[in-house]
Known about the structure:
The protein is α+β, with helices and mostly antiparallel strands.
Amino acid sequence: MEESLKNTLIRFLDYLKEGLIVIDKNKNIRYMNDYAKKLLNVENPEGKLFSEVVKDNYLYSLISADIKKELKEEIAIDGDIFLATVLNINGNRVIHFQDITPFELYKQAKKDFVSNVSHELKTPITVLKGVVETVEQEEDPAVIKTFLQKAKNRIKQMDSLIDDLLILAKLEAKEEKIQKKKVRLKGLINQVFEDLHHIASEKGVKLINEVSPGFTVYVDEKKFLILLKNLIENAIKYNRQNGTVKINASKKDGKVEISVEDTGIGIPKEALPLIFERFYRVDKSRSRSVGGTGLGLSIVKHIAEAHKGKVEVDSKVGKGSKFTVEIPSD
Ligand SMILES: Nc1ncnc2c1ncn2[C@@H]1O[C@H](COP(=O)(O)OP(=O)(O)O)[C@@H](O)[C@H]1O
Ligand SMILES: [Mg+2]
């Protein structure tokens, strides 16, 4: 091959975001591209024995392994996952590394997601089965009525899970465009208060809308209603008996801040980074008794981000939580 073409190829190999190592049959390093050097933290390795330069037993076993055509292995280096391909070419051994960490994380998340959804659907179905079997044999109308009420609650639970999954899937696929328009925030909040009035009054929770009547936001009305509903519903559900939920809004430096503050149970510090994850619930058994899918806050986060905004939380266990949504004011 022509010298200048060789140089071009070598420069290209240094440009790659994948690692390449060539070792001869005496296990001396003939070549390492920049990525491999950085990954294994070595300088000027050419001509040196592999075992002298690279202190990784697993990699050493890869270069010594008996291979026929090729060998593919997943290996961990500094907490990241690489797919290593080992080939014999012209009496040399070539090792190629590709960082597959994002793909592995994605695979794991997908697996967790499927098992979570299955679990969340399986539980109400088990209850429904039990209800049907009982009602089949029961004659007392009062007992039948209580069991049917149980069935209704579980159907509602499955229904809202599916609704939440559908919204989340659409948001994640960025399928739906955000259609912003100017709306009065106070009206949106009152609409949500009306929707949630029954669960608030059951708990004696007072809903306070402190947003001034003229305050406007530039949002996708339908999606923003979903965001507000999830935050306010949580503020009621995880509140104490006769607590309060207060909504405030302010504008500053081209940004709107909307806060939902409650007097509830609060969230432990170590759980704060996790609550926006799909299906995460702080106290599974307690959360189950108040109902919910564990998807609400990830929907909130997605809607805030779709508006080029963010959501933050400040909370004290036993005192209450304050969720703040920040979005551009136009
Ligand atoms: N205002 C709040 N006060 C206390 N805990 C909260 C509050 N909002 C959310 N959480 C916690 O975060 C978890 C996740 O919330 P979310 O995604 O809305 O799911 P869900 O309400 O369906 O459980 C809840 O299960 C609860 O443990
Ligand atoms: Mg919720």
